[in-house]
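RESIDUES AND SHAPES:
===
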Amino acid sequence: MLLGCGEAGVARPARPAPAFALTDLQGKTVSLADFAGRTVVIDFWATWCTPCKKQIPVLNAFHESPAGRDVALLGIAVDADGSEVVAPFAAEHRIQYPVLLGDEALAFDYGAPGFPALAVVDPQGRIDSLHLGVIGRSALEAAVDDARGRPP
């Protein structure tokens, strides 16, 4: 459920981000706690989601840009078939940021009613904003700046 929508497609839930510990495509466990004190951008997506494919180049460019240097960018794939379908998809689409294997339940815990959905978690561990649908690079950079600038 979206609470406090400020503009179409953006929610500002201002609540603690749900904790997670998920496996990446190399088999390593990655948790939200690993990024304590940093701004974290989490993209919930699926291989079967056509708009999710359009999000990848934007996220790759952000990840490689100066604006993305000190931001933890994580892609959480919600595919039920896990790495069997996600790993080849990530390679084919040249995803440059870490991809974790999650599920729809975690995405829903973050407030995502569909995909793609992008959550920006502030350095205090709160969901600062949730963006539904494809987000442009300038809007992503503004959301990250906003999360960094919000007082504890």
